[in-house]
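Handout, section B. The chain below has 286 residues.
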Amino acid sequence: MTDTTRGLLLALAGVVIFGLTLPFTRMAVAELPPVFVGLGRAVVVAVIAAIMLAMTRSARPIRRDVLRLLLAGFGIVIGFPVFSAIAMQSAPASHGGVVLGILPLATAAAAIVFAGERPSAKFWAWAVAGSVAVVTFAVLNAGTTDVYLADLWLLAAVASAAMGYAISGDLTKRLGGWQVISWCLIVMLPVILLPAMFTLPDINWNASGRAWASFAYVAVFSQFLGFFFWNNGLALAGIARAGQMQLFQIFVTLAGSWVLLGEPLSLVTSGFAAAVVFCVWMGRKA
């Protein structure tokens, strides 16, 4: 198995984990404050990350890596979790899953800025085609002002995640996949701890087991374990190429939304999802 194939498989495993983030986030924010769901999950797993780093005696990042870890942390520890949690208050998870299909294009663009990658012209053509399909779907299916605003939050989440993914994938080549997300959580802890504490008075501590289980998923799996696979996949296959696997995340999100939330799978949603995945497949060949 080549490094590229291994990297794509690892990235796909990360995508499956990330694909359930929106359905579980929607269940969590139904009873818990979105900022708590977005930041509190990072506080929880930062403790786990610190223990793992100490137990394995992992090497500390060098000084030049700290700024990049902070930038990645702003994207994947603050930006994406908080913005997507706010969006899930008003938009269906299945709708959000298709909108997030634009992530591969954003990740490829971020790879140019932060990792020096240069995808081919054909790759860009298919990436743009997939992104146009996503934007068209969002415009046609928003329906209400609240969902339009949710789409703006989702686009902010996309930009945040793309920056975090590109920097994390590049750092993984030197630091290792799980070490990168762990150090991101550690360096961001002083930034997120106080805002997370401000949400404590608003928390419904009597929320249902479903809400707390959903919070546990987005903390342990979405914020931590998923990056074990994802970062290594980006490092092995290349950020732009492995990033295209994110378009398969649409189907995971749609299936999760149907099973966990009972959201209907309309022909329009499924059709746009299929069109976007076709674009990523062609982009992969390019």
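Note. The chain has a mean pLDDT of 85. Compare this with the example in section A.
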